[in-house]
Amino acid sequence: MDSFNARYLTFCKPYIDATQTVYSTMVQTELKTTKAHYKSDLKFNYDYSAIIGNSGDYTRVNPHLSFKSTLIISWPKESYIKTANKMLMEAYEEYNKEISDVGMEICNIVTGAAKGVLYELGFEIRMAIPTSIWGANHSFGGQNASKTIVMPMKSELGTVYIQLFYAEND
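The chain above was modelled as a monomer; its predicted structure follows.
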């Protein structure tokens, strides 16, 4: 495995771990990982995606490497509503304004938790403010040169998809 791929996989693991921890503590639900795969397009077959961009430096090499990344957490409609209901202790049947920011909150907390672990691994991260997209089969533009891994995670609430774009600037 080359050094880029090794760094990329090291970078991904804290996000997967943090997502499982957030679901366990805030949603009282266990997430189980399934088989990860690489993604080559920016089209999503989901209904809701929360997105947060990051940039920073990998400091374990000299000179330091700059990087950019984007965490996208996506849900099918039913999984998102069930997740929001469990987190908020409510019983919504449809997507609405009251649950519109649940995904962004999860995305922000996951990134904050991963940031501390990544710092110990040599990644100094600057976080942006999360945003979201709602609508069937939406797409996302931005990091065309990035490598993207998708990690489906299953629970009693349905599937959540963790997608992590990562690119380095020499």
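Residues 3-169 form a domain with the Chemotaxis protein chec fold (CATH 3.40.1550.10).
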